[in-house]
Structures are given as structure tokens and as C-alpha cells.
Amino acid sequence: KQWYQRRVRGFMGGVGRHAQAKAFITSGSLGAWPKKSATIVLYLLKNAESNAEVKGLEVDSLVVEFIQVNRAPLMRRRTYRAHGRSNLFMCLPCHIEMILTDTEC
Fold it and tell me: What b-and-e string marks burial along 66-91, b requiring 16 or more CB atoms within 10 Å of the CB?
């Protein structure tokens, strides 16, 4: 399947310029592909497949019925800078809920 770019708003270190990003009207055509998010969802699908095998369900007949992503509480840390200063270093986690159903039932 073809990957489509998404608009880059923050954390733009190492982001390149691509022709696909012209659709977002960003300065310099900056864009990135959602590789990290896709690998996490793929990992969850593989985990659900192995759970179904352990429970004795038919893996080929499973269908994703519901998937939802919610925000989780921020994880706040500090990064220490020069001259006695410090900045916030926050992690933005999320909760992913996925429900698979068997089509044979």
C-alpha cells in the first residue's frame, strides 16, 4: 500500500522536503510519513493474532470491529541546560483500544 505524508508542525529535526507535502501549504514543503504510529498499530495487530491462536480462535476470520486512540496523562521531566536553567521535557503518550470480532459467529 502507498504511504501518504502528514503535515509536520513540531519536532522538525531531520524532516525533509518532499513534493507530496505541497498539498499542506507549509513553508518549504516539509512533510513526514507516519512510520512510528503505523509500526505500533501493526505490533498490536500481531499481538492480537497471537492471543487468538492461544485461545483457539480462527485467525483468518478475525475482523477489526473497533479501534480508538485516547490521550494519556503527560509525563513531565526536566532537561538541564547551561547556566543553571532547565526546560520541560514532556512525553505525549496515548491509550490504544482495539476490539477484534470473529466473523463466523
Answer: eeeeeeeeeeeeeeeeeeeeeeeeee
pLDDT tens for 18-27 read: 777 777 776 6
Residue 61: pLDDT above 60?
A: yes
Q: Are 2 and 14 in contact (CB under 8 A)?
A: no
Residue type, 32: A
Give the count of alpha carbons within 13 A of 56, CB side only. 0
Backbone φ, ψ for residue 19 (5° rounding): -65, -30
CB 101 within 8 A of CB 65: yes
Which of 75, 73, 3, 65 shows the shortest CA–CA distance to 39?
A: 3
